[in-house]
C-alpha cells in the first residue's frame, strides 16, 4: 500500500500568531501564512470578524493546519484571550487596518485579536494596508508613533495601486517581503537587541551606477544591489525608518522601506544628500562610478569601417562618501562606506578609510565570481578608532546585522 507523505511544519518551531484585520488585502495574508508554515513556523490565525468577510475560516485553517481562533467565547476553559498571546514567539498583524492600529495604540480589547495584542510579551509586527488619506491622517500617524515608541514594529506601507483606481502610499507590502521582516525579527535576541534602531532614520545606498555614453551604451559595474537591500531589510527588522537609494537594481522593494530609484552617480548623490539631512546613519553600499564620460553623444556612436574609435575622455564623479563624512548633515551622524578591492585588500581599505574619513568601512574582495550577485559575502569592518571586525562568509543579512551592531554602538 502506497504511503502518503504529509509536509507538515517541524515540531517545536517558532510559534507565530497571525492576526488578520478586515481590509481588502486580507487575501494576501494567505500567502504570508503559507510562507510561515512551510518554513517551519507553528502558526495560529486570529482574524477579526470583518476579516472573515474577505477570507473564510476554512481557508485559514487549511493553510495553517490549526483551528482558527475567532472569538473570546470559544473554548473558554482554555482562556484563549490570554493564552494565545502568552505562548507566542511573534505576533504579526497583516494586514493591519487603521482601526486595529487605533485599538492597539489605545489598549482596547473588544475581540480576540486585540486581547491577544494586550497579553503578548513577544515581538509584535504590524503590516498596515489602507488608503493613503487614512495612513496620512494625523490620528493614524500618532497611533503608529505610539506603537513604535512601545517597541512594536510598524512596517511602512508600500506605494502602488490601492482599491479601485486609486494609487498612493498605503498598499500592503508583498507577502514575501513581510515574511522576511518576520524572520529577521525572530532571529534577534532580547527586546532591546530587536529594537536597537527604533526611532532612528537610516539611509542606505545600493546597486551600481551607470554613466551613459550615448542613448544605447553606458559605463557600469557588476553590482546587483543585494548587499544594500539586505542592509535595508535588517534595519527595518531592528525598528529603523529606512530610505533606500537604489541604483539600477531590479530587486523588489523590501517591506517597510522608502525606495528612491536612481541611475547615475550624480543622481545618487542628490538623492542621498537629500535623504541624509535628518538621518542618524548613512551606509554607502552602492558601487558608485568614479568617472563618467566627458561628453554624452546625443546619437548612437557608430562603428566606422576603416577607423579606430576615438579615445574616451572621462571626468571625475563627485566623491559622495567623502562629502558625507566631511560635511555631516547633523551632529552624531554615523557614516559607513564600502570598499570593493581586488588586491591588497586590507591595506587599500585602511588607506581609503583615512582618505574618506568615515566612521566605518566595510572591506571585501571582489571579482567576477566573488561577492557581486552572490547570496553570501565576507568582509572586514574597519573602524576609524582602529578597530577591525572580521565577518566570516555567510548570508548577506549576517554581514548587514554586524554592520548595524557596530553602527548602534557608535550612536551618541
UniProtKB/TrEMBL annotation:
It comes from the Bacteria. Transmembrane segments: none annotated. Keywords: Decarboxylase, Flavoprotein, FMN, Ligase, Lyase, Magnesium, Metal-binding, Multifunctional enzyme. Residues 202-412 are annotated as: Phosphopantothenate--cysteine ligase. InterPro entries: CoaB-like_sf, CoaBC, DNA/pantothenate-metab_flavo_C, Flavin_trans-like, Flavoprotein. It catalyses: N-[(R)-4-phosphopantothenoyl]-L-cysteine + H(+) = (R)-4'-phosphopantetheine + CO2; (R)-4'-phosphopantothenate + L-cysteine + CTP = N-[(R)-4-phosphopantothenoyl]-L-cysteine + CMP + diphosphate + H(+). Binds 1 FMN per subunit. Pathway: Cofactor biosynthesis; coenzyme A biosynthesis; CoA from (R)-pantothenate: step 2/5; Cofactor biosynthesis; coenzyme A biosynthesis; CoA from (R)-pantothenate: step 3/5. In the N-terminal section; belongs to the HFCD (homo-oligomeric flavin containing Cys decarboxylase) superfamily. This is Coenzyme A biosynthesis bifunctional protein CoaBC. The lineage of its organism: Bacteria, Bacillati, Actinomycetota, Actinomycetes, Kitasatosporales.
